[in-house]
Design brief:
This protein is an alpha/beta fold. The chain has a domain of about 180 residues: Rossmann fold. About 45% of the residues lie in helices and about 15% in strands. The strands form 2 sheets. Strands 5-6-7-3-8-9 form a 6-stranded mixed β-sheet, sandwiched between helices. Helix 2 packs across helix 3 and helix 7 runs parallel beside helix 8.
């Protein structure tokens, strides 16, 4: 049984940002009667705004460990005041994962290395291996990475590090909100993510709400699919979703599409 039964949004404001975003303006009640729910739609329809608002309301931990006070969550904080969550089981734990947070986190580790190297300014005086050990010891971001995820993710490819972090986080009990998790994943790795999520929900300990553009992920067995447009927020079958329809028809006859561009 999913932990959250439904989510609704009620506000008298609809004409100013962020209340005029399509996902918010057209949302009545989002029924979450399956362990996995996908929210899909074109760029600018407000998928990220909606799931950030849900994550903010739940106060789920996220990638860099910071609070929802930072500027990027300004809209979510405002909208969360008008969000109503109906529970099956009240369990506001889990994880919130945004693709952009992963990039920011990995970049912050690299930036810290560069800055620390400048501070030491002794590259020619000691062996590189000794210097690197000093940098590792002084770099809090790298220490946090190793403590949290078991190893130095800089030794991984971008996609492998991304999937490793997801794998570590998606082992706990709770509600997991993912914003475009396909961003750094090849089609093959997207299938690996589907396997991880299937394994996780089989324990009965997890619920997922995922914003995505990926028809591969949307094909997750028995998942809810909601599509946002400028004028609607509707539950759909996979074959009815624009992303799936366009991708399928393009792959069947790419020249037909390309000749029209």
């Amino acid at each position: 049984m999913p932990f959250i039964k439904s989510i609704s949004f009620h506000s008298n404001s609809q004409h100013s940002f962020p209340y005029n975003v399509s996902s918010i303006r057209n949302l009545d009640t989002l029924k979450l009667d399956a362990p996995v729910t996908f929210i899909v739609g074109d760029n600018g329809t407000g998928k990220s705004t909606l799931i950030e608002t849900i994550a903010c309301w739940l106060q789920l931990p996220h990638m860099d460990g910071n609070s929802y006070a930072k500027e990027s969550f300004f809209a979510a904080r405002k909208l969360a005041l008008n969000l109503k969550v109906e529970w099956n089981i009240n369990l506001p734990t889990g994880f919130f994962f945004r693709a952009e947070d992963f990039g920011d986190f990995m970049n912050s580790v690299d930036r810290s290395d560069v800055e620390l190297r400048k501070q030491f300014d002794i590259d020619n005086e000691i062996k590189e291996s000794v210097l690197q050990q000093m940098l590792d010891n002084a770099n809090y971001q790298k220490y946090y990475m190793k403590k949290k995820y078991g190893q130095d993710l800089q030794s991984f490819s971008h996609g492998e590090a991304y999937l490793h972090i997801l794998q570590i986080q998606l082992e706990r009990k709770g509600i997991f909100i993912l914003d475009e998790p396909e961003a750094a994943l090849s089609p093959h790795k997207q299938l690996s993510l589907i396997h991880l999520i299937k394994k996780h929900i089989s324990t009965g300990n997890a619920q997922y709400i995922i914003a995505s553009h990926s028809p591969i992920l949307m094909a997750f067995p028995d998942a809810n699919l909601y599509e946002i447009t400028d004028d609607s927020f509707e539950r759909k079958n996979l074959e009815e979703v624009d992303h799936f329809f366009i991708t399928k028809n393009f792959l069947n006859n790419p020249n037909l599409f390309l000749d029209e561009l």
